[in-house]
């Protein structure tokens, strides 16, 4: 699951996409100086997000594709056993396109690949787009749609909503959530409403949930049925559509989730649930349709019941063995989700979970702080290799598992990184060059950047989404963290983040509103701010005894991020975005008073940071309003003219011969929002990423390495931790 920044277009039965833009590979933009060459890679964690779809190419051995809810699409290379990201070129303005609603391949043209992109269908989100490739995703041509897609909304784990017509490779179908069924007759270059499709779009529903070919017939699932109206349609000629007769009835068959066709037996298998999922499903079933005779047969492995509620999700047939297929349960928390496999068309089933042996040594976080890993949750993406019946993969809310013998399972995530990262610290000393905090998977200690952290998630306690991570500047062995957890929401470390101890007590607010946390320069004082997930802000609290006791700070602006002075342990700062005031404390956080006023107020994206090793040297990134600096502890600020907009800013080791730390920034010095570095105190900037490495939304946090000049760590919303180094 990912929590990220979040009118339906009714649309007439006319063109649904009007603009076609060719792919352009422009040279890297540079401001001030020539742009240095950088090599960008992921700091390895391994998966960490919801893999919503996996598709083996039916005609090419070892070729597969995966889609994610917020982290783009990937291509699998069986020879190297790695995933290659295909959408990192999407930039800041296209952040909403990092969610992949659906993907499609052309069985008769192996190099063709299509992606339907769009993360949210809300009024504040941009429209969707279709990317088309003739070289397996190496380069793209783009068509902008006039409708919205929802790759990170309910129903995102449902079947592929994009399909190449089995009768004509030039014809494509695209199912939308609120705008019905679209059709293209020029390989995705332009799209128009399929007016003959009989289902009526809803402003709040799911619309088309799946598209699948069964021979020369195309089937479409419909998620807006009330349980009595049709929810599965078909066309045999690409023009006329009809509701499939005799469909299963009842709440267990309300929403068709996924479908797969067995070409040997001419049967279409459909999984159903009472809700689109991945959350909220409590009933479900599996049925098969004999496409020649029209007869339906229920083949549900286990019916949900009291105390064991769930829906059915993924379904994949074995292309080599008639009547052999795999289905998955979804949202099953009591007995835990599983895969069921049948070799006799659904008459009998075997639970693969019951004999599963897991090896998560490559991605230890998957143990979730326990003795052994779980089979997974949110299992809606399932695929069987058409060239190897025992090669099965399935996606979960955190990874992609695979097996070659139906018994031994291991993550299949090399190259696939989908974390939504919100905290980064690069220590000035110690074994680790990086500590990170992410949504859903908490805090990690990275001994190596090229391997998943050996300790997995920070434990004692285990927390989910991280809300705070801070290091004492003059005592780097002391680190504190905060986040959402069931057994305490804050902890401290005295060995640089290797091991943790929970705070002896925590303010009552911490249970429901854990927020950012800070430690002063020597680690003697902690400030903890509190923000509920709905945005409600509460008073901050202070501890001067390592988290044993806490007292409220009435003068601290509610919900603000506390910033510790890196040199003077008596100083703290805060930026009140509601008023545009910077406040400071000179008594170790006991009280705060207003210093600078007149700064940008109401800016939705801001970050106040202190330059390392200096007292009172503050920098304020204020999104549309640019960058400001104070050298007097926040008493006054000067606007930095070299920067048009600034989203986040951090520091790293100074350039050789320089007397000020290198500054790294996500922002714009001219027209392009990009990653920049300055070696001269923000007088000039150079862009250090390029058009092939943009990763959509990157405005959360950036920090340089204090021990390695030029190395920078960048948090992304869906593409994990990117780190760049000069070539």
Automatic annotation (TrEMBL):
Keyword presence, Repeat: no
GO annotation, biological process: polysaccharide catabolic process; xyloglucan metabolic process
Taxonomic lineage from the root: Bacteria, Bacillati, Actinomycetota, Actinomycetes, Kitasatosporales
Transcription in keyword set: no
PROSITE patterns, A to Z: TAT
GO MF annotations, alphabetized: hydrolase activity, acting on glycosyl bonds
Protein name: Carbohydrate-binding protein
UniProt record similarity statement: Belongs to the glycosyl hydrolase 74 family.
Key words, A-Z: Carbohydrate metabolism, Glycosidase, Hydrolase, Polysaccharide degradation, Signal
Gene3D superfamilies: YVTN repeat-like/Quinoprotein amine dehydrogenase
Leader sequence segment: 1-30
Coiled coil: none
InterPro entries according to UniProt: TAT_signal (IPR006311), WD40/YVTN_repeat-like_dom_sf (IPR015943), Xyloglucanase_GH74 (IPR052025)
PANTHER family cross-referenced by the UniProt entry: OLIGOXYLOGLUCAN-REDUCING END-SPECIFIC XYLOGLUCANASE-RELATED (PTHR43739:SF2), XYLOGLUCANASE (EUROFUNG) (PTHR43739)
Top-level lineage group: Bacteria
């Amino acid at each position: 699951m990912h929590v990220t920044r979040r009118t339906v277009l009714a649309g007439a039965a006319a063109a649904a996409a009007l603009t076609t833009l060719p792919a352009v590979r422009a040279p890297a933009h540079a401001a001030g100086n020539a742009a240095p060459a950088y090599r960008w890679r992921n700091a390895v964690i391994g998966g960490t997000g919801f893999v919503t779809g996996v598709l083996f190419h039916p005609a090419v051995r070892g070729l597969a594709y995966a889609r994610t809810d917020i982290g783009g699409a990937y291509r699998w290379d069986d020879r190297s056993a790695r995933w290659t990201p295909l959408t990192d070129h999407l930039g800041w303005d296209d952040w909403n396109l990092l969610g992949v609603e659906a993907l499609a391949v052309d069985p008769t043209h192996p190099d063709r690949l299509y992606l339907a992109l769009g993360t949210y269908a809300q009024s504040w989100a941009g429209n969707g787009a279709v990317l088309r490739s003739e070289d397996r995703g190496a380069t793209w041509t783009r068509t902008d749609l006039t409708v919205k897609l929802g790759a990170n909304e309910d129903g995102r784990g449902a079947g592929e909503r994009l399909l190449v017509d089995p009768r004509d490779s030039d014809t494509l179908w695209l199912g939308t959530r609120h705008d019905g069924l679209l059709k293209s007759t020029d390989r995705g270059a332009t799209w128009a409403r399929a007016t003959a499709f009989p289902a009526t779009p809803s402003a709040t529903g799911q619309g088309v949930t799946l598209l699948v070919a069964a021979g020369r017939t195309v089937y479409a699932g419909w998620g807006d049925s009330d349980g009595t109206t049709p929810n599965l349609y078909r066309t045999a000629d690409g023009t006329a559509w009809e509701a499939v007769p005799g469909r299963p009835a009842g709440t267990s068959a309300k929403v068709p989730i996924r479908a797969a066709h067995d070409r040997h037996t001419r049967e279409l298998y459909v999984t159903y649930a009472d809700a689109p999922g991945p959350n909220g499903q409590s009933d479900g079933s599996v049925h098969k349709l004999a496409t020649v005779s029209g007869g339906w047969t229920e083949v549900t492995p286990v019916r949900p019941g009291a105390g064991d509620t769930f829906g059915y999700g993924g379904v994949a047939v074995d292309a080599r063995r008639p009547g052999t297929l795999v289905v998955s349960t979804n949202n099953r928390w009591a007995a835990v989700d599983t895969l069921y496999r049948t070799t006799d068309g659904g008459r009998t089933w075997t639970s693969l979970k019951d004999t599963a042996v897991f090896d998560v040594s490559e991605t230890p976080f998957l143990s979730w702080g326990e003795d052994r890993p779980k089979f997974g949750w949110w299992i809606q993406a399932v695929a069987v290799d058409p060239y190897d019946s025992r090669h099965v993969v399935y996606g979960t809310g955190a990874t992609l598992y695979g097996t070659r013998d139906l018994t031994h399972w291991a993550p299949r995530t090399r190259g696939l990184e989908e974390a939504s990262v919100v905290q980064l610290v690069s220590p000035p000393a110690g074994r680790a060059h990086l500590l990170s905090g992410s949504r859903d998977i908490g805090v990690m200690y990275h001994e190596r950047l090229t391997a998943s952290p050996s300790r997995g998630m920070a434990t004692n306690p285990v927390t989910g989404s991280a809300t705070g991570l801070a290091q004492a500047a003059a005592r780097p062995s002391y680190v504190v963290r905060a986040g959402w957890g069931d057994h305490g929401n804050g902890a401290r470390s005295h060995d640089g983040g290797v091991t943790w101890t929970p705070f002896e007590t925590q303010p009552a607010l911490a249970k429901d509103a854990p927020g950012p946390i800070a430690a002063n320069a020597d680690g003697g004082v902690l400030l903890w701010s509190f923000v509920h997930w709905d945005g409600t802000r509460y008073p901050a609290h202070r501890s001067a005894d390592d988290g044993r006791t806490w007292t409220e700070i009435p003068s601290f602006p509610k919900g603000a991020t506390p910033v510790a002075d890196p040199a003077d342990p008596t100083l703290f700062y805060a930026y009140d975005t509601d008023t545009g005031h910077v406040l400071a404390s000179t008594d170790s956080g006991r009280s705060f008073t207003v210093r600078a006023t007149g700064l940008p107020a109401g800016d939705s994206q801001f970050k106040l940071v202190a330059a390392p090793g200096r007292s009172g040297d503050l920098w304020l990134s204020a999104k549309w309003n640019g960058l400001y600096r104070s050298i007097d502890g926040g008493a006054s600020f000067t606007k930095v003219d070299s920067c048009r907009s600034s989203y986040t800013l951090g520091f790293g080791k100074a350039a050789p011969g320089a007397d000020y730390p290198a500054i790294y920034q996500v922002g714009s010095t001219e027209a392009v929002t990009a990653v920049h570095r300055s070696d001269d105190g923000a007088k000039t900037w150079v862009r250090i990423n390029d058009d092939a490495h943009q990763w959509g939304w990157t405005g959360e946090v950036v920090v340089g390495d204090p021990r390695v000049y030029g190395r920078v760590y960048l948090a992304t919303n869906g593409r994990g931790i990117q780190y760049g180094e000069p070539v």
